[in-house]
């Protein structure tokens, strides 16, 4: 039996973690993630959730506890935002290198300084090279479904997964969504089994120092060196995309939702121009392209990037082969370069025959309002500007500056 | 459930001396046991062995008179720190004959 509710995005994430049968939660409160961990701690305290809630003094410790729990063969969960995520950064690399299947919700927020509690994507962007799988969702239903599927993905490929959702836009707004039946989730997501789970009967060295070369361990078994282990992480990150699609197909069969787990296209069939965006921004653009099609007759569509790492370069390039222009709108950047997503899209297209005109727009940094009118105006203008000097075309445009 | 198509390579390994190479060459201090204080050595019975338990390089034997494997003892001093009766002293390598260290 499924359960329809109207609730906040943070509570949607809490429901998903509970349904996933999380056994250890270790988290430190940080705006706008706080209500998510408060909800989980309430359920643990009231006995509605059979899990250990470890109150920690920092995010670094929160992920440390989750790493310990996963190493002991226990399904663990944490969540954070912005500076909290950055405080975990060292442990993020550790969890990925140790191949621990953790799931973490990141409620995206601008990174200080200056202090900001509002939404953008700089927190997740800054951690894109840690070896975590990074998923971006667009609404409450996706928070629930993607978080549950994320556990199955993490445990199948043994790579930790970050589920990103926009602070305030999703975390604190109320929307209707459906919770899957707990029994059915248990069937979809079997118990976590870890082959190296800590066991005094079978001592092992886990993630001890590796030397530059592969080595034979005390039992004479050849063990990869650091470079071999990291090479396999890179290979298996890429292979994880296919597994994510399989998991989504299974989920869709059981629960009736899903179908576009990597990239989600909106009105792309005949599109001459394509907007590429992540998170709620991609949903906002559905209104924008509807309006441009109706009022100006511009054939434009939206491509939502839902898996950011591993970067779906081939799928993205294929989806953009027919486009004349591609406009990347994003809420974060690689300072001193350009939008990180834009640079990734550009590099994905380079080996392919069709190279559409590319433009980059930076919006909503630190929660700056993103009026739909402004998106319409800028997109319309960009669609009429094929011929720009290369350097101008390659420079990000900031929308909504108040300088 | 792990996917069988994935190798999931980590640095998990059978623990034992030498998993981190011949760490004896790192040593600047050497642990020395005063067997007149060491509980198993004094009583002739297996007891305590916290030096064996805590050594990160499995360089201490679980014997009535615990012995150090100097090929792998890196001189970290954890055994001396953990010994409940203070039987282990860390002694500078240069005090041993011929430069002391065997590497
Ligand atoms: S810890 Fe100290 S008392 Fe115990 S076995 Fe080792 S040397 Fe002896
Ligand atoms: S000093 Fe003691 S604990 Fe450290 S490596 Fe040597 S024997 Fe082991």
Task: Describe the structure concisely.
Chain A has 403 residues and is an alpha/beta fold. Helices cover 40% and strands 20% of the residues of chain A. Chain A has 14 helices and 18 strands.
Overview of the molecule:
The complex is a heterodimer of chains A (403) and B (103). By secondary structure, chain A is an alpha/beta fold. Chain A has 2 domains: 4-188, 3-Layer(aba) Sandwich (Rossmann fold), CATH 3.40.50.970; 263-398, Rossmann fold (3-Layer(aba) Sandwich), CATH 3.40.50. Helix content of chain A is 40%, strand content 20%. Chain A has helices spanning 9-19, 34-46, 59-71, 82-87, 89-97, 122-126, 140-157, 182-188, 226-255, 280-296, 313-319, 340-349, 372-383, 390-393; strands at residues 3-8, 24-27, 52-55, 76-80, 103-108, 133-136, 161-166, 174-179, 204-205, 215-216, 222-223, 263-266, 273-277, 300-305, 307-309, 325-330, 357-362, 397-398. In chain A, the strands form 4 sheets. Chain A has a 7-stranded mixed β-sheet with strand order 3-2-4-5-7-6-15, with helices on both faces. Chain A has a 6-stranded mixed β-sheet with strand order 12-14-13-16-17-18, with helices on both faces. In chain A, helix 1 (9-19) packs across helix 2 (34-46) and helix 10 packs across helix 13 (372-383). Chain A is globular and about 70 Å long. Chain A starts with a strand and ends in a 5-residue tail after the last strand. The mean pLDDT of chain A is 96. With 103 residues, chain B is low in regular secondary structure. Chain B has a single domain (24-96), classed as Alpha-Beta Plaits (2-Layer Sandwich), CATH 3.30.70.20. Helices cover 15% and strands 12% of the residues of chain B. Chain B contains 3 helices and 3 strands; from the N terminus they run E-E-H-H-H-E. Chain B has helices at 39-43, 50-54, 78-82, and strands at residues 13-14, 29-33, 88-92. In chain B, strands 2-3 form a two-stranded antiparallel sheet. In chain B, 27% of the residues are buried. The chains are: A alpha/beta (403), B little secondary structure (103). The A-B interface holds A 97-99, 155-158, 190, 193, 195-196, 203-211, 215, 217-219, 221, 223-224, 226, 228-229, 232-233, 236, 239, 243 and B 1-3, 5-21, 58. The complex binds iron/sulfur cluster (2 copies). Residues 31, 55, 57, 59-60, 68, 73-79 of chain B line the site of one iron/sulfur cluster. One iron/sulfur cluster binds at residues 31, 55, 57, 59-60, 68, 73-79 of chain B. Chain A: Residues 15-213 form the Pyruvate flavodoxin/ferredoxin oxidoreductase pyrimidine binding domain. Chain A: This is Ketoisovalerate ferredoxin oxidoreductase alpha subunit. Chain A: InterPro entries: PFOR_II, Pyruvate:ferred/Flavod_OxRd, Pyrv_Fd/Flavodoxin_OxRdtase_N, THDP-binding, Transketo_C/PFOR_II. Chain A: One of its GO terms (molecular function) is oxidoreductase activity. Chain A: It comes from Geothermobacter ehrlichii.
